[in-house]
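Consider the following input, taken from an annotated entry for Oxaloacetate decarboxylase, gamma chain (Candidatus Methanofastidiosum methylothiophilum).
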Amino acid sequence: MVEMSELFLGLELVIVGMGITFLVLIVLSSIIYGIGRRITKSEEKNNKLQEEITEIQTEESINSTEEKNDEETIAMIAAAYLHCFNSKIPIISLSKSNENWKLSTRREMMEGL
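Applying the prediction step yields:
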């Protein structure tokens, strides 16, 4: 049978082993927590700098897009005016309209399948 001294020795080893394990886990978790706090502090500093930079850039881009939008708006209004009132000035179309031969050959090829 098992003697009481062996039983106490086993119980003592279990308690010491679990105690050491939990102490190591506590130390590791505190180290990870400290590293996490340092990272978040540095990220907050970087985010503040990035926000300031983006604010400056958005102000500049708003000014440049307003100028672009004015030119585009004028061109669109002129094109709509010319289209609505059928003036003799032709509107240039950038798409090719003579692509019927492509469609017919594709149709022929599909019918062959």
